[in-house]
Each structure stands twice: as structure tokens, then as C-alpha cells.
UniProtKB/TrEMBL annotation:
GO CC annotation, single: mitochondrion
GO molecular function term, any single one: acetate CoA-transferase activity
Signal sequence interval, chain numbering: none
Gene3D superfamilies: 4-hydroxybutyrate coenzyme like domains, Acetyl-CoA hydrolase/transferase C-terminal domain
Keyword Hydrolase carried by entry: yes
Species assigned in the record: Colletotrichum fructicola (strain Nara gc5) (Anthracnose fungus)
Domain Acetyl-CoA hydrolase/transferase C-terminal residues, every copy: 135-272
Name of the protein described by the UniProt record: Acetyl-hydrolase
Length: 314
């Protein structure tokens, strides 16, 4: 594992259950001064509970998986699953517990409690992650769990939640308003760039201080980009699912606005796109149309007026 290029060898993992390496970590006893036992519990914040929005997202995704199985693009037990954490991820995994998919496998960076419910339901066969299900759970180092080589070989289905997604399917996973760090990138980039199916699930809107739909999670242009349009295959909100595989940028924009944007923001985003397309085509540069002086008008309206809905017309 620690060999340097050009002497690196492939990880000999062909399935989720495959084990490599040793069952212990070698250490020189002369270097051990003492061993301290601790029963101090992890100090982690609980996830927000599932709600109607996250459950709707889960239904859209399960319908998508059923469609892919029906057309022979996925096996009946799907491919190994990767999921981030949060109420949407919990809802998706919980939805699989009540689905017709059996013998599921998981290859992921972290496992949350919902996966244990999936084990108990009999739907999940085996999982690998970095965290009493000894015969069903294999803990690996992050160097292995997040290895692009293995993720690609296994054909993992990667599912993560962003801060925002733009109309061309770029995603911001870390920085609110472009500058305020919400969380680290984690393993989302490792998985979404290399997964067989790269999926971003998000509510279409989030509340601001003055408006329950004050923040649109679908925007003209992301204020920060962690995953590019070349990395993502599917965008899903409680409004619907956009399968953007094989589409041109302008086709992606129309589909994401139609399927994923909240109804109060659909006309705003469509107006932006229509004007951007007209202006850019008129200048002979319409591959991925943008109005550079208006791309962040929704964010400006949020800062100045308290809601993205109060954006002035484009």
C-alpha cells in the first residue's frame, strides 16, 4: 500500500467482501509506554430527522434504480452503494429497506445507523467502511475505502448531498456563499468522480431567516465548485430527478430547471437561462451560456433582501 510510483501495485479487491492486508498492525513493544482504556463516547451531533422532502427524494431515487434494472443497466441487487450522511441519506437507505432490492452491498467511507437497520431487514448482505455486525462489516483504512481504483472497478453508486447545484450540474459541497466553510469535502470527490453512477441529492430549497423557501439549491452558477459537470450523472430533489448523462450543457440546464428546481424558482431560472442563451448565441458562444454580470444575482438578493425570490428580473 505504501509503495511509491512507479512500483505501486493494484489493490487485489474484486468484491466488497474481499480482504487484503493483515489482521493486525505490527508494532515494536519496546515503543509502548502504556495502554489507556476509555469508555468516553463519541461526541457527534444527531442528524435531522427524515421529512417529507427527504422521503420524496428517496422515492425518486428508488424509482430510478428500478428503471435502470428494468432496462438492464443495473443488476437486480444493484451495484455497491456509497452514501454520505444526513437526513436525505438516511431517507434513501431507509427507503431501500422497504424496497424490492435484496442482497445489497455497500462500499462507503462512513456508515450511519440506518445501514444497521438495513442489515436487520435482510436487504443488506455486506458493507465496508472506515467505522456487533462483525460477520457483515469490514473496516478498512481510508486509503483503501476511498481508492479511485477500487471505486471504479466495483462500479459503486455514489450518493452525496451538496450545498448547491447549478443549472449545468456543477456542485458546491463545502462553501456557503462561496466563502463560508460549512464542512470539509470528505470523500465525496473520491466517490463522485469515479463512481459508475454519480448522484447528488438535495432539497430544492432551504429556508432563510425570513422565507421558508428563501434559498434555492438550484442556482444559475455555483459560488464555489467541488464537483464539475463532468463528474455528475444524476441530480435529484423532492421535485424530481434529472438524468443528465450524455446531455449537452444546454440540454442539462433545461432538464434540471424542469425536474429539480422548486416551482417558485423555475420561472426565475428559466428567465436567466433564456436570456443567457439568447445573448451568447447572438455572439457565437453558446456552448454553456452565462450572463457573467448576473450569475450571482440570486445570492445577492439573499444577502440584501433576505430571500433569493426577491431577485430582480434578468
Amino acid at each position: 500500500m505504501t509503495d511509491l510510483p512507479p512500483r505501486r501495485k493494484p489493490y487485489l479487491i474484486m468484491g466488497v467482501e474481499d480482504r487484503i492486508g493483515t489482521t493486525s498492525i505490527p508494532i515494536d513493544p519496546e515503543k509502548v509506554v502504556g495502554i489507556i482504556e476509555s469508555d468516553y463516547q463519541d461526541q457527534t451531533s444527531p442528524n435531522t430527522p427524515e421529512d417529507a422532502s427527504s422521503q420524496a427524494i428517496a422515492r425518486h431515487l428508488i424509482e430510478f434504480f428500478e428503471h435502470e434494472v428494468k432496462h438492464g443497466r443495473l443488476p437486480k441487487n444493484l451495484l455497491p452503494l456509497q452514501s454520505g450522511i444526513g437526513n436525505i441519506a438516511n431517507a434513501v437507505i431507509g427507503g431501500l429497506k422497504d424496497s424490492n432490492f435484496w442482497n445489497l452491498k455497500v462500499w462507503t467511507e462512513v456508515i450511519q445507523d440506518t445501514f444497521l437497520d438495513l442489515f436487520d431487514s435482510g436487504h443488506l448482505d455486506f458493507a465496508t467502511a472506515t467505522s456487533p455486525y462483525h460477520d457483515k462489516l469490514l473496516l478498512r483504512s481510508q486509503q483503501v475505502s476511498n481508492s479511485p481504483e477500487i471505486i471504479r472497478r466495483l462500479g459503486v453508486i455514489g450518493m452525496n448531498t451538496p450545498v448547491e447545484v447549478d443549472i449545468y450540474a456543477h456542485a458546491n459541497s463545502t462553501c456557503v456563499m462561496g466563502s463560508r466553510m460549512l464542512n470539509g469535502l470528505g470523500g465525496s470527490a473520491d466517490f463522485l468522480r469515479n463512481a459508475k453512477y454519480s448522484i447528488m441529492h438535495t432539497p430544492s430549497t432551504r429556508p432563510s431567516k425570513t422565507d421558508p423557501h428563501g434559498v434555492s439549491c438550484i442556482v444559475p452558477m455555483c459560488t464555489h465548485i467541488d464537483q464539475t459537470e463532468h463528474d455528475l450523472d444524476v441530480i435529484v430533489t423532492e421535485q424530481g430527478l434529472a438524468d443528465v448523462r450524455g446531455l449537452s450543457p444546454r440540454e442539462r440546464a433545461r432538464l434540471i430547471i424542469k425536474k429539480c428546481a422548486h416551482p417558485v424558482y423555475q420561472p426565475i431560472l428559466q428567465s436567466y437561462f433564456d436570456k443567457a442563451e439568447f445573448e451568447c448565441l447572438r455572439k457565437g458562444m453558446g456552448h454553456e451560456p452565462h450572463l457573467l454580470f448576473n450569475s450571482f444575482d440570486l445570492h445577492r438578493a439573499l444577502v440584501e433582501e433576505g430571500s433569493m425570490q426577491k431577485v430582480k428580473s434578468f
